[in-house]
Structures are given as structure tokens and as C-alpha cells.
Automatic annotation (TrEMBL):
One of its GO terms (molecular function) is hydrolase activity, acting on carbon-nitrogen (but not peptide) bonds. It comes from Pseudoalteromonas luteoviolacea DSM 6061. This is Amidohydrolase 3 domain-containing protein. Keywords: Signal. Coiled coil: none annotated.
Amino acid sequence: MNYTLKLPLVMAALMLSACSSYNDRQTTHNDTQKYLVINGGTIITMQDGMLSKNPKHIYGKDYSVLVKNNKIEAIGKTTEVVNSIPQGSQIDYFDLNGQTLLPGFIEPHAHLQITVAGAQFADLMPCLPDKYQSIYEKGYGVLFKENEIDGKTKPCLLYLEDALNALAYQGNQSNVAPWYIGNGLDPSRMQFNTDTDLTENAEFLAYPAKYIEQVKPLKTNPVFILDQSGHLAYVNQQAFKTAGICGTKFDITPQQFENKTGMQPSKEQVDFITQNQGKQILCGGTKVEMVESQNLAKFQFGFPDGDWQIAEYEEGNNDYWVFSGLLNEESAFYPLLNTLIDKIKTPSEQESDMLHVLNIASQQGVTTFTEGGGSSYEMIKSYQNMAMSPDMPTRLRTLYTWDGNLCSPDTDMNKNCHQKVPFDNAQYKGLFSAEGIKLWSDGSTQGCSASLSESYSDTGLCETAKNGHANYTKDQMVKNLSKFAKDNWYIHIHANGNQAIQNSIETFNTLAVKHSNYKQLPSVLIHSTVNGTSDSPVHIPDLIEQNRNGNVPNLSSSHLIGHVAYWGDSFKNELGDKRAKHINPTHTEWEKGIPLSLHSDMSITPLYPLWFMEQAITRRTWKYPHLNGNGIPLNKSESLSRYQALMAVTINPAMQHNIADKVGSIEVGKLADFVVLAENPMDANAVKNTDIHNIQVSCTFLNGKKVKWYKADNKDEVLNTPNCTFETNVGAKYIANLN
């Protein structure tokens, strides 16, 4: 929607900066004519297609990769490779010394600016399983504030009650006073306290304002808490008052509504707007009055895909109802947060912070990072500025939101400002590009707002959610996306629930029929979590297969595999055992020839591709708050093999973002983006499935140059990479003698 303020702008952050280079020399992106020879270890090229039963193109110590400038020139026997180098050329040499070379990992779906932004505020996120938490605290975890409860410092939380107390203890940040803002609360995993179970959190979701207001000083000051899913927020009554919602006169026009939302109102909507002019939006009244205020607010403030829920103030209190404090979907947050616009940092002030997050991602093996929600002009300009910096540690591929406000402040708002930036753009040289579009079709599975054909379990946390929340109908999605399909943008649709997934598949099919050129572009289902009903829990892969064999040959899925690891047990409560067991049915998809990728959706889960690999192979899940050990399997029959999991973080996401001709595998002509691992992730004898997350990332290469890393907790201190040292200007004879 064409909002003047997007969530990443509101939740501004103070992070660290980052740099990159080849050894100790600062990287520039103007390549000179030189060669790099890499050998002495295992080389896994990821060239195999999905139908290959036995992975090929895995080479040993007697093979070399030759890089010329920024591209892969040759792969072959070391003698042949070295002999192919012109005499007198400048040659650098990197001995893997038994390590493993892979194409750089690709993060297909994450949110950079909102991750940086959220780190400024009280960190209310639940703990990770112990085996991951200790690693996280030394990486991305240093970006977030520690909590103090009862005089004790805690890096993470397990209970909602502790989270609310931590928010109250930290106080309102001076730059956003009088607001108290928290980030990452998760009622789907965090019991309210040690004496309750998860199902009792249904009462919190029904009326979060009541629970917030039980904690001083959260009753008398405005409170905004972002759910970890990013699809829900929790506020108190004072938040509505401070934001000036209560008593607002309904005076929006149909044209103003269209300008705000990017959606032309239907005849029924126009009639509603016309007939209700002059009415007031109430924050308390009878149930009938509050239902009306719900609808008035959706139009007045422009969030047709969101909701403000209502609740009875006190049972038996003469039919007096209020806004409950539960906000559904991002668009419903802005009317409350817009009051902070003069107190927050701009995206340009966050650039060094975002570079540092990308540097930490590089330390996990990432060479291409995809922003899953490029929603504002300011965000995109910042990303472009970062790409021009010699300190850029990864590529930054961006999906524009279909309704993003991408026009500069001095541009006519009616102008189409969705302008492609091709990967080969001469200005950004592949470090920033944007050729895809993103739309959210539903909410969050764990947030009780995924769009389902069969309702949530009536005995679990989401008992009142029924069939969840659909942001748009299929016809609305087709209308919103048609112009982009016509103009050859590839499209990703967020779809968690099986009904949303089915609607999205039908949308892709309609777009392909209407615009034949779109048929050859990637169509990707983001998350694709709940894949059927209790009676038929794995129905969606059949639909994907049918459409791949029909009008949508490039239809595929990208899974938040953390849904298995961190929410798998919770989903049993929300969906019942049958549907929960079959979330993210990766093995079924693989058997049907459906390319799939694995992503973090950062900051929803941490960005560690080796964790994704382990979680897809083991499908281990934990029952909160018991986070020790290796968890228990959630339907091991849906596990991936090691090679399949590697494909899901390399070549498959490259295909899904239409850049597989540039990156994603080690092949002649592709860009020299690599990751070096201390151990071979394909070697089950050396590394157990449950220990893959402990494999050390030794270094990464971007455009054939080693990325300089900085310590997560000190942007000025270089992080040494002793397992990635080079010999420069060595000559072909020197390398031949070594081998």
C-alpha cells in the first residue's frame, strides 16, 4: 500500500558497520586482469539437476577452480588448469588445505532493514534451542539488547509474563517517549508463566491489552509490541488514544482510499464510504458500535488487508466493548505508529548498521541476500547506496512490494515508480538488483492468521481464529499483480495456509494464461507451510506438480524451515497432529520434481544456512520451554538428503530469483561467489546430521575476492580468517610444483 510510512522506517535501529576486502587489501569492484587458482580440498559445484540420483561434479584435491578477474574460467585437473593460464599473468593461489569449496549460499527471503530496526527496542524474542542459542548470542545476538528481570540479565526469554516485565523494566526509549516498544513477542511458543500451558495463551490473543495493562507502567503509557511473526502486534488502550484514533471523524473519499492502498474500491465499498461520512471512530461502545468502528477504521486509515480486533471490556459490563489490542497485518500497525515519524531515524542513517548485518551474514557463508519486502523509496535508495560502497559484503537482490511507495518525495504519486534494476546494471554491478515483486496473501501460521480451508484446532491456541485471515481474494491478487506479469517481473507470493497457497497457485495460473511471456518466469510460493487438511495433509504438492506440467512450469516453493525446528510442536497444538506433521513437505516436493529453497525470513528466524540444512535433514523440533538436547523428529519421512539440502541454499534459490545463469553453482562463466567450509557437509562420517550447524565457515568470496570480516561485537576489529590465507603473484610453475 502507498503508505507514507513503512514499518522498517518506524522501528529504527542503531547497529554496527561492515567492510569487505581480498585479504587485507580493500576490495574495489573495478576488476583488473588477474587469475586465482583454488585447489587442495573438496570442490562441490552444485551443477546437478534435481533428477540426478547420485551427485556428480564433486572433485578432490587434484582438481582446481580457476578464476579470471571476477568469473570462473575453468574447472579441471590442476595441471590442465594451470597450463591454460597465459604466460606472464598475475596469479594468486589459495590452498584449501583439505577444506571444502562450495558456491556461496543464497538467502532467498529475509528482511534486512526491519531486522536492523527492531534491534533498537526491547528484545522480547523467545530463546532458541540451547544448541543454537549459544552460537546466536555470538553472532546476530550481539545486535539486540539483553533483558534484566529481577536483577538478572537474560539474553532471551521463555515466558510472556517475563517479556512484559522486561519491557516495563527497560522503560520507554528517549527517542520515542512516551511509547514503550518491544520486538519479537511470541505467544505461540512462550507460555504465559510457569503455571500455564500454551492453550491458555488463547486468552492473551483474545485481549492482549488487558494483560499488558496489568504491568506498571504499561497501563498509563502507550505500548506497541511486534509479534515475532511480523504479522501481529499487541497494543494497549493508551496506544489508540496517543495516536489520536479515538473520536476520529470518518471523512475519507474513495479516491483517497485508492491513493492510500493502491486498490480501487468496489461499488459496495464506495457506498459504504459515502453513507458513513461524518461518523466517529470509537474506542469503546456497544458491540454493534465497535464492529462499525472496526470497519470505519479500515477505510479511514487504509488497511483493507488488516484488522483491529475487539473484545468485551469486562464480562457482564452492560455490553461495553473496546479494541482488544490485537492488530492483524502490517498495514494495520501504521495508524498507531505514524505518530512517531518525527522521532525515528531514516534508512540512510541505518546504512552502516545494515552493512554490518550483511557482514555477519557473510560470516555464515551468504554471498547473495534477498530482501523480501522492498517497500519504500527511502529503503531502496539506502540499499543502492550500500551497493556502491567498497564495503559491500554480499549481493543484495530485492523484491519490491506490489504496493510499495517507491516514488521519491518530489514525484507524482500517480506515476509508476516500480522500475527494474537488472542484475547486469552497469552502476551496481550485480551488488544491487531488483526484478521481482512480492505480495502477501495471508498472515502467519503461528500467529493464527494463515488462511486455511479447514479451521484451526478448536481446542488449541488458535481456537477462535477459525479459518485464519486472507489478505486478498484470488481475483484481487490477479488484479494487483497483472501489470507486473505483463511487464516481465517474476513474482513471489507469501502464502502460509493451504487455502492461501491454493489461491496463489490459481493466481499464478491466471497470470500465465493472460500474459504468455510471464509463463517462463519464476513463480514462487513463500513459506508454503500448511499443505492440506487433516484428511489430506499433503495435497498442495500435487497442485504444484499439476501446474508445473501446465501453465506455470517455473512454479516452486521456498520454506521457512525454522517452522519445523522452532514451531513444529506448537503447530500440533494449533493445527492438530496430522497437519502439523506435514508442514513444509520437502521430501514429497523433491520426489515430484519441485525445486525448493530454504530461507530464514530474518528476523523471524536467524540467518544460518548450515542450520537450515541440518533442520531440513533432521526435522528436529523442540517443545518450549524445554530446549536442551537435539529435540525430537517431526515426521522424518519428509527429510531431505544432504545434497538436496545444499541445493536448497545454492542453485535452487538462484533459479527462484532468475539469476541461476550468474550464481548458485560453480560453473564456467558464472561469477566467482564461493564459501569455504572447514569440513565437508556431504561427509556423514566426519559430521553427524545433528552437528552440521557446528561446521565452521572459514571465508567467503564475492566476485573472486575474499570478503573482509569484522567481529560481530566490534565493527572496528577485523575478524581473522587463518584458514583462508593466500599466496600472491606466485606463477604457474610454483603451483604446478605444489601439485
